């Protein structure tokens, strides 16, 4: 993405008139992305003449790589080159480009119309360099020109391989689509997806003992993390457990405290939910106040903790009303939820 941003800035600077070369790249980009009524979008040619008002895409910005000259491993005899000339090869490649089936296959391989045409022009230039061609491609071109096999679609494997060499981003498009797919957030946490987690939901009202029981399992584990909604609760767990002689570190957005020191971090951590590291593997994780995942402002942090914590056991503490949404979020992963219900230990007085 950094390379693409640099490329965008360089291209926009090239398109700017000489009198505006002193304008920063960020200013040009701002002018380019403004919509109707907000200013004049800038999309000029090399002379600085504004072109159209359409928005740029990645296909407008990327340029084919210039590949270094390659030498074939096999020795090409002069008789192989008999009957080959630039004009004949150009006709074959142009026929290949005009085939609807070729364009369909290119689209299925991630090449839209703009990239296809750019890749075709680069491929056509490559096919003119007979001494650098793959011998197999050379034989296919010669067969087509001599009428021995007129199926120009045989060129497609060589074309798509060349396209991916001159446009390396094509190899990453599927990964980019998966990463940017906001409909499947469970795929954002590969560390957690390598574990078949055991999910226990401690459901009940305040002062029912649900968090107490979850913390008992936290103490029994070899490693663990407690995620609370407030710094006050994270500090409370940190203070109480260390007073009992059970070493727990604390991590919040403001500070980190160590039971011993930073050279000897503890295997157990008490943190605010936003500070959970999804790359940290632990035996037990306790996520308190799980019903907060429905909150419009901070709900993302509990959703991230639920889907992303890399723990063998995940203990969720919260209200009964949160059980359906938790089950729904975990359904695509195939993880089931064991629900343990609690009753209030003391009467509620209004």
Describe this structure in words.
The protein is 40% helix and 12% strand. It is α/β, with parallel strands linked by helices and 350 residues long. Strands 4-3-5-2-6-7-1-8 form an eight-stranded mixed beta sheet, sandwiched between helices. 26% of the residues are buried.
Present the secondary structure layout.
Blueprint: H1 2-15, H2 25-33, H3 58-61, H4 86-98, H5 100-108, H6 113-127, H7 135-145, H8 156-166, H9 173-179, H10 190-193, E1 198-203, H11 210-220, E2 224-228, H12 231-243, E3 249-251, E4 256-257, E5 268-272, E6 281-287, H13 299-308, E7 310-318, H14 323-330, E8 337-341
Parallel strand pairs: 1-7, 1-8, 2-5, 2-6, 3-5, 6-7
Antiparallel strand pairs: 3-4
Helix pairs in contact: 1-2, 4-6, 6-8
């Amino acid at each position: 993405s950094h390379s693409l941003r640099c490329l965008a800035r360089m291209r926009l600077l090239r398109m700017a008139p000489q009198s505006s070369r002193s304008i920063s790249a960020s200013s040009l980009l701002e002018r380019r992305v403004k919509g109707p009524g907000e200013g004049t979008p800038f999309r000029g040619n090399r002379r600085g003449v504004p072109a159209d008002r359409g928005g740029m895409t990645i296909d407008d910005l990327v340029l084919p790589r210039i590949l270094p000259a390659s030498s074939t491993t096999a020795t090409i005899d002069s008789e192989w080159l008999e009957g080959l000339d630039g004009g004949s090869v150009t006709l074959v490649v142009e026929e290949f480009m005009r085939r609807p089936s070729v364009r369909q296959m290119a689209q299925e391989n991630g090449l839209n119309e703009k990239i296809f045409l750019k890749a075709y022009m680069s491929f056509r230039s490559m096919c003119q360099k007979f001494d650098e061609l793959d011998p197999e491609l050379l034989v296919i071109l010669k067969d087509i020109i001599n009428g021995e096999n007129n199926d120009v679609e045989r060129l497609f494997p060589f074309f798509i391989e060349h396209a991916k060499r001159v446009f390396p981003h094509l190899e990453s498009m599927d990964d980019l689509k998966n990463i940017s797919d906001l409909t499947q957030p469970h795929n954002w946490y590969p560390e957690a997806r390598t574990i078949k987690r055991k999910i226990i939901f401690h459901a009940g009202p305040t002062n029912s003992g649900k968090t107490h029981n979850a913390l008992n399992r936290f103490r029994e584990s070899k490693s663990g993390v407690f995620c609370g909604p407030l710094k006050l609760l994270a500090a409370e767990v940190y203070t109480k457990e260390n007073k009992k002689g059970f070493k727990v570190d604390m991590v919040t957005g403001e500070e980190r405290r160590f039971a011993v020191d930073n050279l000897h971090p503890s295997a157990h951590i008490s943190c605010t939910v936003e500070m959970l590291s999804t790359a940290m593997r632990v035996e037990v994780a306790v996520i308190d106040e799980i019903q907060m995942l429905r909150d419009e402002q901070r709900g993302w942090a509990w959703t991230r903790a639920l889907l992303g914590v890399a723990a063998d056991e995940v203990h969720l503490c919260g209200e009964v009303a949160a059980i359906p949404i938790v089950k729904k979020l975990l359904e695509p992963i195939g993880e089931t939820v064991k629900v343990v219900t609690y009753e209030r230990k003391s009467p509620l007085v209004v």
